[in-house]
Design a protein that fits this description.
By secondary structure, the protein is of the alpha+beta class. The protein is 30% helix and 26% strand. It has 17 helices and 29 strands. The strands form 8 sheets. Strands 4-7-10-11-12 form a 5-stranded mixed β-sheet. The radius of gyration is 37 Å and the shape is elongated.
């Protein structure tokens, strides 16, 4: 959601925009990059979560700003219009697809260039000015968060608008001249003869307004958000309208948006209202939630008083009743249960102000499943055998498959319209890519899911796939044997096959189910860490070297091996001894500092017992 600072100030007073944006960030509205400078103001782009469609409007952002700054929102003055029976007729064919459908018919207006203040507002948001009528609908959408659309009434047959599923074979030319073929899953707005708009996404070109328009039907609707989302994906059309309507907007919002838009149209474009309609088949009930302090304090880790909770909730414009019975306003469609209210209290209170404390109970024991352990052991096993792990894309367009593939309903890539039934194509693609930059020897493996259809519907299975190049057949055969050696495996030769792709390029694949829910025969241990140290000594001539070595082994538990580096050289009553000492530890983090200390300890013992001196 783009937030032009000077436009936001129409609804909330503040001076320090950096402070505001920091507080909005801590309240859950992250910035998507640094602000832009547009038309003399900073424009911030906020990441709005799927469950917060109210914040896809400047009034919604102003409400959040008011809560974190403890200030009142300045709402625009809206004068409700009077309902008026007229010639326009509307209909909702399926109330499950469209929750509410409103129209206002206006005659005698003049479509022309927008006033400068309106063009400036839209420019800051990034919307190009079209004309005063279209600009007003865009202005209201940004301000209120509810999209609207104006039809040229003269182009609507029989003054009727119907919200219904499209029929097979129907087409629609959209604004921007894109022609689409409609499906029965699309929701369209039609007149008495043909579709004139793609519900929740975009209006049609043939009924668009222009400078000659003097009468309009202004429509505003709320939809089943899933229908809008699927339609947008199906036709690969993403608009400001669909971004909002693919989320759950309350039907009451259509009233506010139409009242605001009609007031601006009459003021800027002129005209008179000749008809109003409102199709609202199933009214949404008001939502009330009971909040208990005990539940809040137990979950939140903060001891709130009832007064503190009431103050926070009122900042969010929630109506607080007796005993914390909270009436939810229409614009907060995300608040459904007590835990939602607890999150709101903690969010506005500040997550960073919640005191830290250690858990009362000990951490749980490992709950890793055998499947997870098995996969990790296979990864370790193959990594130590010199293979590189790959993670390839599950989307594909396999032309040949023994299994029936799972097709994607709305693929964003026409070349990848199904889920893979094998790891083969992905691994071969990775092999080909690596052969361009590496030597001929490439060894890759992947543990991933494949998908297929059977009589029970879509299924998935975890597979192990391996592809090699530049090694002999017996290497990849050895990888299969490695599984049987390391696990109490249940698979046999009939459970897999080694495919010869071309000379010295081999592939095999096996289901992890065939390895079974097995016990690992022996744990894989890390190779012991080894550090060598040399000790050069003068010792009395009669000193036995064997006893020196025994004393070294006895003195330090980290010494695994001692070798005589060179033949002792005798000089008078002394001789030289050179010891090559190997320090080794399978479980301790062996370092040079640690072995230096052990070496010093050994030398001290040898000096005391054998009158040795360091050379």
């Amino acid at each position: 959601m783009k937030v032009p600072i000077t436009w936001l100030k129409d609804y909330i007073d503040f001076t320090n925009e950096t402070e505001l944006m920091d507080k909005l960030t801590f309240a859950g509205h992250m910035q998507d990059g640094p602000p832009q400078e547009i038309a003399g103001t900073h424009v911030y782009d906020l990441e709005i979560r799927q469950n917060r469609p109210d914040c896809l409007s400047l009034l919604g952002i102003a409400r959040e700003a008011g809560a974190v700054l403890n200030k009142k929102v300045k709402y625009p003055q809206i004068k409700p219009y009077k309902s008026q029976v007229g010639p326009t007729r509307i209909e909702i064919a399926d109330p499950k697809l469209c929750y509410r459908f409103n129209t206002v018919t206006i005659e005698g207006l003049k479509v022309s260039e927008s006033p400068q203040w309106l063009k400036d507002k839209l420019k800051k948001y990034g919307i190009k000015s079209v004309n005063n009528l279209v600009d007003i609908t865009n202005f209201v959408m940004v301000e209120v968060g509810q999209p609207l659309h104006a039809f040229d009434r003269a182009k609507i047959k029989d003054d009727v608008l119907i919200m219904r599923p499209a029929k097979k074979g129907e087409t629609l030319t959209l604004l921007g001249a894109k022609k689409i073929s409609l499906t029965q899953d699309d929701l369209v707005i039609t007149d008495s003869q043909k579709p004139v708009g793609l519900g929740g996404v975009m209006g049609g070109k043939d009924t668009s307004v222009n400078r000659e328009t003097d009468s309009i039907i202004l429509e505003c609707a709320t939809y089943n958000q899933a229908v809008v989302r699927r339609t947008s994906l199906r036709h690969q059309i993403r608009t400001e309208a669909s971004t909002r309507l693919e989320k759950f907007l309350h039907p009451k919002l259509t009233e506010l948006a139409l009242q605001r838009a009609v007031g601006l149209i009459l003021e800027v474009c002129g005209g008179v209202i000749v008809a109003t309609t409102d199709a609202y088949p199933k009214k949404f009930a008001e939502v009330s939630i009971k909040l208990t302090l005990d539940r809040l304090n137990n979950l939140g880790g903060v001891k709130f008083t009832q007064k503190q909770v009431e103050e926070i909730l009122k900042k969010l414009e929630l109506e607080v009743g007796p005993s914390l019975n909270i009436k939810i306003p229409y614009f907060r469609t995300d608040l459904e249960i007590q835990e939602d209210l607890i999150e709101e209290v903690l969010r506005i209170h500040g997550y960073d102000d919640i005191p830290s404390q250690l858990p009362v109970n000990p951490p749980p024991r490992s709950i890793d499943s055998m499947d997870f352990i098995r996969e990790e052991q296979i990864r370790d096993l193959y990594a130590k055998a010199g293979l590189d792990e790959q993670i390839t894309e599950p989307l594909t367009n396999e032309k040949k498959s023994i299994l029936k593939p799972v097709l994607l309903e709305n693929s964003l890539n026409a070349d990848k319209t199904m889920l893979r039934t094998t790891l083969r194509d992905g691994l071969l693609g990775a092999l080909t890519s690596q052969l361009k930059f590496r030597k001929n020897t490439v060894k890759l493996f992947e543990i991933g899911k494949v998908y297929f259809l059977d009589s029970k519907g879509p299924q998935e299975k975890v597979m192990l796939g391996v592809v090699t190049s530049g090694v002999e057949y017996f290497f990849i055969k050895g990888l299969v044997d490695l599984l049987n050696d390391h696990f109490e495996s249940k698979f046999e030769s009939s459970d897999y096959s080694i495919e010869v792709i071309e000379e010295n390029v081999y592939f095999f694949e096996i289901s992890l189910e065939k390895i079974g829910n097995v016990k690992i025969k022996k744990p894989l241990s890390n190779p012991p860490q080894v550090i060598f140290q040399d000790i050069s000594l003068y010792v009395p001539t009669k000193t036995e070297v064997g006893k020196l070595i025994q004393e070294v082994l006895k003195t330090s538990s980290l010494v695994s091996k001692v070798e005589l580096g060179e033949k002792p050289q005798v000089s008078g009553d002394k001789k030289t001894v050179f010891l090559h000492v190997q320090f080794e530890s399978p479980d301790k983090n062996l370092t040079k500092d640690l072995t230096d200390k052990e070496k010093k300890k050994i030398v001290t013992v040898l000096e005391a017992k054998f009158k040795a001196k360091v050379r």
